[in-house]
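Our preliminary data section would be incomplete without showing what the modeling component actually yields. Below, a chain of 115 amino acids is followed by its predicted structure, encoded as C-alpha cells that our downstream tools consume directly.
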Amino acid sequence: MSKVFTTCLPPHDGHLGMEIQWAADCSDAFYQGVKLAQTWLDCSRSGWLWAAMIAERDLLPRAIERRAFEVGFLSRIHQRLRSNQDSTQPEIRCTSGDYIVQRKAEPVLEACCHG
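Predicted structure:
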C-alpha cells in the first residue's frame, strides 16, 4: 500500500482495541459500522443483527467502504462476545486484502487481510 489511512477501534467491554490501516480513506464507513453495532448492542434497535448490518452497509457506494463498515460493525460485536474471555491470547495471522490489522496493546501482532 502506498498511502495508508488508519482507523482505530477503541477498547470496549474489557477487550483490546485495534488499529486498521486501509488503502483508501474509509474511516466514516468504519465508524458508522461501529456505531450501528453499538446501537444494536444497546437494544436501541430491534430486529435481526444481520438485517441491520446489511441494510446500512448496502447504502455505501464503494466496495472498500462496505468492507470497512463490515469490519467496524463485526469488530465491535466481537469485542462484546469476547468480553468475558482473556483478551491477551495471540491473534491468528491472515493474508488476503487491502487492510492491515494491529491490536493496540500488542504491536508485534499484525494481520494482513485482503477483501
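The first helix runs from residue 27 to 41. The mean pLDDT is 78. Preliminary results of this kind motivate Aim 1 of the renewal.
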